[in-house]
Design brief:
Oligomer: single chain
Structural class: mainly alpha
Helix content: 40-55%
Strand content: under 5%
Shape: extended
Number of helices: 4
Length: about 110
């Protein structure tokens, strides 16, 4: 038996006023429950990502080396802020370096 179609995210956004969305976006983050082993530098944050061809990953890494950015997250922060600016939105994405570990290093 086929599952009934669910309304997409866009429907919910259309029904939500821009003022309510901005109020929620500007609200202080809710206190996240502590999860054993969770990284404290990620509390109150959401991962945004996508799946791209390997060539995109390689080009991102090379660009980071060329311009002196160490991580893809630094590049993505810049890209997200440029996207916001392009559409007249405030540049609110920030980058806070977290802990870095090398391959094979224990957590």
């Amino acid at each position: 038996m086929a599952k009934p179609a669910r309304p997409g995210l866009a429907i919910g956004l259309v029904k939500t006023s821009p003022e309510k969305i901005m109020t929620q976006a500007n609200a202080p983050p809710a206190e996240a429950p502590h999860i054993e082993g969770a990284r404290p530098d990620r509390a109150g944050k959401t991962m945004i990502g996508g799946y791209f061809d390997d060539a995109v990953n390689i080009q991102m890494k090379l660009l980071g080396l060329e311009i002196g950015r160490r991580t893809s997250q630094e590049l993505l922060t810049e890209a997200i802020n440029l996207l916001f600016q392009h559409y007249g939105k405030p540049r609110i994405a920030t980058y806070t370096p977290g802990r870095r570990r090398r391959k094979g290093q224990a957590t």
